[in-house]
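Our preliminary data section would be incomplete without showing what the modeling component actually yields. Below, a chain of 133 amino acids is followed by its predicted structure, encoded as tokens that our downstream tools consume directly.
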Amino acid sequence: MMLNSDTMELDLPLAQSEAESGFSDCGGGAGPDGAGPGGPRGGPARGLEAAEPGRKDLQHLSREERRRRRRATAKYRTAHATRERIRVEAFNLAFAELRKLLPTLPPDKKLSKIEILRLAICYISYLNHVLDV
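Predicted structure:
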């Protein structure tokens, strides 16, 4: 973390006691599990923003606006594109597996996804009919 004049006032020495830091008055001291004000991981308490230099302009924004700005970063878009690619590949693989189970003439006929689903419904109902007879 980089220090500048804004954050130097917030930094406290590690050896400072709870009474000296002011946490005893406002309930920000250690909780029942012995963790600091942010819980066992030591981060900021839930609902509070971290006091970082680049974050001050984001604190006044709504949750939706912060989410929109976070999603506009190149790192987020790249990660999202990767997750979407993996999801689409799994989706297409599932359709290919279902397609292998369906009888058609010719057997290698290319079917759209909706055709695969409709054919699967018809084939399942046909198999139910065969079992009932």
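The chain has six helices and no strands. The helical segments are 5-8, 18-21, 23-26, 63-71, 74-101, 113-132. Preliminary results of this kind motivate Aim 1 of the renewal.
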